[in-house]
Amino acid sequence: MQEKLTFNHQADIVNSAIRFINSWFKQSKTITDELSDFFILPGNKIIGKEVIIARLKGIFGKSDEYAGGRYDIIDSNFELLNDGKGIAFVEGVAGFRAVLKTQSKIVSGPFKLYFALQNEQWKIVNIVFPGFAY
Question: How far apart are CA 130 and CA 134, in angstroms?
Answer without folding.
Answer: 12
